[in-house]
Specification:
alpha/beta, six-stranded mixed beta sheet, four-stranded antiparallel beta sheet, 11 helices
């Protein structure tokens, strides 16, 4: 299990992926290189959920941005549905980007507070020139219903929604272009336990209905255990262990993975904390 996932039916795959950043020292202004990712091999099974886990600074969010094509890696290759994405022409790459959508950790800062829900969800359709105004508005209503928001709220602005509703709004926007892959960067971490449960159920329903593939960036292994089919563990920009979630939780191979699992609360503690308020 230690190493890279087996790429039998991968929607997305990386080979020898590396990412470095050039920074300057504050006084001398001399440049130095900061490695963020190192020789990352990763497979994301089609229609499944992969969790990227590791401590803060492990490289999870950098890897997620590279996989979402928001940043170009310094080395290596990314394949989406068999295509080497960075070898494609600009127009072809534009089409691939439609199929990969990103859901940010904090919907409050990710959503434009001056735009209505209708404008937020329809903006990708407008950018890509898809549909008439009437068709776009109908799709907005359909998407709002699918994520558990009332279409009648289409003229409301983000700050008029609750935190859980804003995350649903962000998910609806991500679905506007009918992607095959959603990358969720700590998308549950800003929510309370009840809304985490509701969003996880929503994501499961959407995955079943739309055959979606998910990549979850998540540092809470207690959550990962509930939704992930595959897990990749990052440390210092490298994947130290990856494989089926059930095997990783039952039989972790790498010492770092065992450390992470040892620090995780027991299932009894998780359930006690999650449901304590309901029986108070």
């Amino acid at each position: 299990m230690t190493g890279s996932l087996q790429c039998a039916d991968a929607l997305l795959e990386t080979r020898h992926l590396g990412k470095t950043y050039v920074q300057r020292r504050p006084f001398s202004r001399s440049e130095f290189v900061v490695p963020a990712l190192d020789d990352v091999h990763l497979c994301v099974p089609r229609g499944k959920t992969l969790a990227l886990v590791g401590e803060s600074g492990a490289g999870k969010s950098t890897l997620a941005r590279c996989l979402a094509l928001l940043e170009k890696p310094s080395s290596g290759e990314i394949y989406f549905d068999g295509e080497n994405v960075w070898s494609l022409r600009k127009r072809e790459l534009f089409s691939i980007r439609r199929m990969i959508q990103f859901v940010f950790q904090d919907p409050t800062s990710a959503l434009n507070p001056r735009m209505t829900a209708n404008e937020i969800i329809s903006e990708p359709l407008v950018i890509h020139g898809l549909g008439t105004a009437a068709e776009q508005r109908k799709k907005v209503g359909d998407l709002m219903e699918q994520v558990g928001l009332r279409p009648a709220w289409a003229e409301m602005r983000p700050l008029e929604f609750s935190g859980g509703q804003r995350q649903r709004l962000a998910i609806a926007r991500a679905l506007a272009l009918d992607p095959g892959l959603l990358i969720l960067d700590e998308a549950l971490s800003s929510l309370d336990a009840k809304n985490q449960d509701l969003i996880l159920q929503l994501l499961a329903d959407l995955q079943a209905a739309r055959s979606l593939t998910y990549i979850h960036v998540c540092h809470e292994l207690s959550l990962v255990r509930r939704f992930a089919v595959e897990v990749a563990v990052l440390r210092d920009g490298k994947i130290v262990e990856s494989g089926p979630a059930i095997e990783l939780f039952l039989r972790p191979q790498h010492p770092y993975t065992r450390e992470l699992l040892a620090a995780m609360p027991s299932l009894e503690t998780i359930h006690a904390e999650r449901f304590a308020g309901e029986f108070a």
